[in-house]
Specification:
Helices cover 51% and strands 11% of the residues. By secondary structure, it is α/β, with parallel strands linked by helices. The structure holds guanosine-5'-diphosphate (GDP) and magnesium ion.
Length: 390
């Protein structure tokens, strides 16, 4: 992670020193700026005006593509009225939503550098050259960030809105180390975008989706002053925020497939321990002999473990032949169960030590030993490494 720090005076939005580096931006290939819009008719001319100034000042080759979800509020006319031949608007009527709109815009972009930004003037277009300098310096993805030194949000961000944004960012931390992955202001190369596979953006967080699915490692941040919108309304609803949780789960499964399976397997195993202890304590309460209590606890927990693993951990196999799967599972657990039972009984009957263990403690020790056997059996027998054939 790198932070590309702008020149100190660049913090006052709008003014932008043309240093040696920034001058270089002129020689870069063209930039396609994609702006998802929904009911932004008032903001379109204001944004175009600022981009026009930027284009002039830096002699940039660029196009602006508004991707509108059929707002019907005069947005199309507003773009046409601007008279800029480098600005156009796509009107979508299907698969509505911010992220799909951005992806559609990127697909129709004609230049090798892609920029995405909001239409509501929250994102300063004057920072675009710095995003591009980051790409030039070897970054794969550059993001305009509120949370790196020099970045800020408007003062009237209420505590709840701030907290919400910070929690959302924290939940994404295992996926990316950048400070502001929630930002909708970013730049990347079209060639990298074209290589992205299984893009499946649910909701708002298109930058996060791209960083994870494109496996970007070099991501840089440029501080921005985030301005609250003056015209129109935010479309970030509570429903969108719920979709974010769903989006995160998919991204975690994509990035950590093996670890997610193991974690689910362990959670199911832990639930089995609880089931085991509850069942054996119930049977003991009826005054049944220890052997029956221990066997009952193991038997019931093997069944619940099987059902839960089939439903969650290995959910891809949940429609397979259940009896055959159960037989396989029993075979795999049999050794562990037998060890668990024997160890518990030996602890209980003083066959191992001089003291007799309590029933539950004996059961827990048995379970722990049985699990080690289960693991070793799977590791070295069921899933052993096969010999390399010549
Ligand atoms: N095409 C399209 N654009 C959208 C949609 N929802 C929001 N936008 C645009 O995406 C940008 C960010 O949305 P905004 O409502 O400002 O979200 P906020 O900044 O998180 O409050 C703005 O330019 C919106 O006009 C949508 O469903 N389709
Ligand atoms: Mg906004």
């Amino acid at each position: 992670m790198t932070t590309v720090t702008p020149e100190p005076q660049a913090h006052d939005a709008g003014s932008f020193p043309v240093t040696q580096d920034l001058a270089e931006v002129r020689f870069l290939t063209g930039i396609s700026i994609v702006v998802p819009t929904y009911r932004e008719v008032q903001n379109i001319p204001l944004l175009l005006e600022r981009i026009a100034r930027l284009r002039r000042d830096h002699d940039l080759t660029l196009e602006v593509i508004f991707v509108d979800d059929d707002s019907g509020d005069g947005s199309v006319e507003a773009v046409q009225a601007s008279g800029h031949d480098w600005a156009r608007i796509l009107v979508r009527t299907e698969n509505r939503g911010l992220s799909p709109a951005v992806i559609d815009g990127f697909r129709t972009a004609r230049y090798p550098v892609l920029v995405c930004m909001d239409c509501d003037l929250s994102h300063p277009p004057e920072r675009i050259p710095q995003l591009i300098l980051g790409l030039n310096a070897g970054q794969q993805f550059m993001i305009g960030s509120r949370y790196v030194p020099g970045g800020s949000t408007d003062d009237d961000w209420g505590f709840l809105r701030w907290l919400n944004s910070r929690i959302a960012t924290l939940l994404a931390r295992p996926l990316t180390q950048i400070r502001d992955p929630m930002s909708g202001f970013f730049a990347l190369r079209k060639a990298d975008f074209d290589r992205a596979r299984d893009l499946n953006p649910v909701g708002y967080k298109i930058a996060l989706e791209l960083i994870v699915k494109c496996d970007f490692e070099n991501v840089g941040e440029v501080p921005i002053e985030f301005r609250d919108r003056v015209h129109g309304e935010s479309k970030l609803t509570f429903r969108e925020q719920l979709k974010y949780i769903q989006h995160l789960r998919r991204l975690y499964l994509h990035r950590f497939a093996n670890a997610m399976h193991l974690a689910q397997f362990l959670v199911v195993g832990a639930s089995g321990v609880v089931v085991n202890l509850v069942v054996l304590s119930l049977l003991a309460a009826f005054g049944l002999p220890d052997a029956i209590c221990l066997a009952g606890g193991i038997g019931v927990s093997v069944i619940t473990n099987f059902l839960l693993n089939r439903r969650f951990t290995f959910s891809y196999a949940k429609n397979g032949p259940i009896l055959r799967q159960f037989a396989g599972f029993l075979g795999a657990s049999a050794v562990g169960a037998l060890v668990s039972f024997s160890v518990s009984m030996m602890l209980r009957t003083r066959a191992l030590f001089d003291v007799a263990f309590g029933l539950q403690l004996a059961a827990l020790c048995g379970i722990a030993t049985g699990m080690i056997f289960n693991y070793l059996g799977n590791r070295y027998i069921v899933f052993r490494k096969t010999h390399v054939r010549r």
